[in-house]
């Protein structure tokens, strides 16, 4: 097996998202998943940036103890169309409504990451990506609802799925941020943490 990237760091991923696990694994990091599951509620008055930072930090609160060199990563992604925050849909009907809201318009995807190293250092970052959707046909929405996986995704779509190929005209910013992890910013923070230990 190849040597891991940043081998001193033991990454604990506090997320049940298979995409986040896959991205960190692709980065070559040592990753162990320990998803706790918290209720994704937040105070109403928060801005989109504050919402994702709040939820990423809330997911981190569930962890109480850290082993040597353990670095906990928690994260949250939302979709924002005009002023409306779209999290994961309740059911397929809700998913259909979200896709109608996103059709023929642009929206922003915000992902925050909260990185807690050894229970001592906490670093957070939030990244925004703008996504432009074409006008979706009802038959396309119906096809995706039946054959795709809208329910575990913010805004009821996965850019990495069939709907991403069909709906997304262009994006401004990081693709990986839309999938749920702004990998470049994460690497930068992890490198800084790695440099701080001997
Ligand atoms: C917009 C978009 C979101 N998503 C995903 C990223 C996130 O996993 C999910 C938003 O829900 P989150 O609550 O951010 O994450 P999660 O429930 O998957 O995992 P956990 O709370 O345990 O960390 O939507 C995509 O995979 N593709 C996309 O195009």
From TrEMBL:
Entry annotated with the keyword Hydrolase: yes
Active site feature: 76 (proton acceptor)
SUPFAM superfamilies, sorted: ITPase-like
Record-annotated site: Important for substrate specificity: 19, 77, 160
One term under GO cellular component: cytoplasm
Alphabetical list of InterPro entries matching this protein: ITPase-like_fam, Maf-like
Molecular function terms, GO-annotated: dTTP diphosphatase activity; UTP diphosphatase activity
Keyword terms of this UniProt record: Cytoplasm, Hydrolase, Nucleotide metabolism
BP term (GO), one: nucleotide metabolic process
Enzyme Commission code(s) on record: 3.6.1.9
Catalytic activity: dTTP + H2O = dTMP + diphosphate + H(+); UTP + H2O = UMP + diphosphate + H(+)
Places the protein is found: Cytoplasm
Transmembrane segments: none
Keyword RNA-binding: no
Superkingdom, natural source: Bacteria
UniProt cross-references to Pfam families, sorted A to Z: Maf
Chief location of this protein within or outside the cell: cytoplasm
Protein purpose: Nucleoside triphosphate pyrophosphatase that hydrolyzes dTTP and UTP. May have a dual role in cell division arrest and in preventing the incorporation of modified nucleotides into cellular nucleic acids.
Family: Belongs to the Maf family. YhdE subfamily.
This protein's name: dTTP/UTP pyrophosphatase
Taxonomic source organism: Luteibaculum oceani
Lineage: Bacteria, Pseudomonadati, Bacteroidota, Flavobacteriia, Flavobacteriales
Gene that specifies this protein: maf
